[in-house]
Amino acid sequence: MRTFLIFLAAAIGTYAIRVSGIVMFGGERRLPERVERSLRLVGPAALAAIVANSLLLDEGEWRPLGAWHLAALVAVGVALWKRSSGWTMAAGAAAFAALLLAGL
Amino acid sequence: MTLSRPTLGIAPRQWADAWAGLKAIAPLMPGSALFGLAFGALVNIAGINPWVGNFASFSVVAGASQIAIVEAIRTGAPAAIAVITALVINARFALYSAALAPVFAAFPMRWKLGLAHLMTDQAAVVALQHHDDWPDPVRRRWFVVGGALPFVAVWCVGGAAGIALGPVIPEAWQIGFIVPLMFLAVMVPGLRGAPALTAVGVATVVVLAAHDLPYGLNVLAGALAGIAVGSFVPDRGRHPDTDDGLAHDAGAGE
Q1: Is the ipTM of this complex over 0.85?
Q2: Per the CB < 8 Å rule, is A6 touching B48?
Q3: Are residues B154 and B198 in the same domain?
Q4: What whole-number distance in Å separates Cα of residue A24 and Cα of residue B246?
Q5: Residues B208 and B130 in one domain
Q6: Residue B176 belongs to a domain
Q7: Of B141, B157, B186, at which residue does a domain stop?
Q8: Which of A18, B61, B97, B136 is the most exposed place for a label (fewest CB within 10 A)?
Q9: Which tens digits make up the pLDDT trace of B144-181?
Q10: Cross-strand bridge partners of residue B246
């Protein structure tokens, strides 16, 4: 029951966060140019922060150089070359599997 | 799509638009399934009631925060700490929500309220990347739901499988790599322009510099710093038909 209530509270809070901007700024009026410029950067900035935290750190400590970094480099290279999410996932996963099999 | 009769009360045109959304997010769906599997396995190991674990998947719909809650429960943290940690991790959704406001502006309120729940990182970025291709608000909302709901469904199914089966994926496979890989796959293909590149660079540096912050606050700090600094960078090479800071992923539909 305690666990259920924790998840329920997290679910309600997370929904409130998710709906906040959509409802608050949801009118037809245009936002100021400056704000629009900032909002365009939300995707790249948030995704880069998650990547840095999960790839270069491991639970807050530096991740030792190895298969994670090399496979991610392959994924970034393929992403810039093919400009495709599917190719990026496939190449990154294949590179990571190969590096693990090679004992890295 | 040559059907002329509605299916489940939904017209063929809407099915086709939702299908386009599904194709845009499809490359990321294996990542969602595997991440769900990892969350489910953790629920299984922690001895949490399976129904509660599945409830978490479709009510919270945010993997990193769900994993943080399970870890907090396992380590005996107070309930308030578990909830606050999850909400801090999920604070970035407020940024997506603000960015999506103009995209959803012309939708009926019940659509806004429903779609908000489905806005994972991946679905939000797909909607932000593609919305210019869907100027008609009716067609746009079907594209958005197609690019969001199946991804959440796959997440829930992956979670249910993990809860039922436990840790079927060997530790040695280091399945955690799916997290940075999935986010690289949604970010890098569309990455263009000095402001976006600056945002990425600044966010990365700040996340690393602030790695001692608790509760994943370094991620929030990094995202905010990236947005703030990037917005000061002039975009000289700006193409008039791209206005989301991320170009469109032509290969995503394959």
Answers
A1: yes
A2: no
A3: no
A4: 24
A5: no
A6: yes
A7: B186
A8: B136
A9: 999 999 999 999 999 999 999 988 888 888 988 998 99
A10: B191
